[in-house]
Write the structure tokens for this entry.
Amino acid sequence: MNWMTPTTRMVAAGLLLVALAACRRDEAQAPGAPAGPPAADDAAVPAVPAADAPVALADVIETDPRYVVGISYPPGAADDPGLAQALHGYAEAARGELMQAVAGLDGNPTAPYELSLGFRETLRSADVVAVAADGSLYTGGAHGQPLVARFVWLPRQQRMLTAQDLLASPEDWRPVADYVAEQLGAAAHTRAADEALEPADRQRLLAMALKTIAEGTAPRPENFAQFEPVRSADGRIAALRFVFPPYQVGPYADGVQSVVVPAAVLRPYLAQDIRGLFAE
């Protein structure tokens, strides 16, 4: 299991604005404030329209007494129109949610509402371009809503690779899900071994963690919607890193969790038209 690294490319001014907004928010929040909404529905990657209109991906820095917006895109992302449109669509959907919340305000909030979203390219080859999106959307409450999305674009096929067409059949998700659940479960056992906890508390927390993992890794493609390729030495895909936002396989405090599934585990179940992208 690996923890996700933060967005590495944000415009300096945007980072400053976001940091200031976060500080103001932390100061304004009282203990026991209600938690922000779960990000369960954020897993879906926007569909790419059949006819891709060119999209200009420009970084966004926007401030207002009521809100702060910071969005950054990686260089070269606009070179693939279909991918660019998907990234832009995801960002606009998040911004639309922010502005809808702002529209419902009666005056200025105690702490500014905030959208902080960064896209970073994780792989680029002739066959695969992968982009990760990480950020948060704050519209009140104790903390922001995590934004976690992964985009895997196949330039030669001019389409997005999604969980729905990753494996040959829906039944093939069972062995993949079992592998992921086993890795997450091992990590949960490690966390529950904290000697500072009473034995009964350890058992209770472990039981809750394993139940959440079982539900969040049920063998359905929608539970594995976010994944990014890990490149092999020969340029093909050596593994897929499946990424799970907070709440899906653990509490908010556990943050974003991920599991790397080697190509050797995936190969027997991969769809025929993408099998050649993976290392032997």
Observations:
- Confidence is low (pLDDT under 50) at residues 1-43.
- Residues 81-103 form the longest helix (23 residues).
- Strands lie at 60-64, 67-72, 113-124, 129-138, 145-154, 159-160, 227-231, 237-244, 257-262.
- DSSP finds five helices and nine strands in the chain.
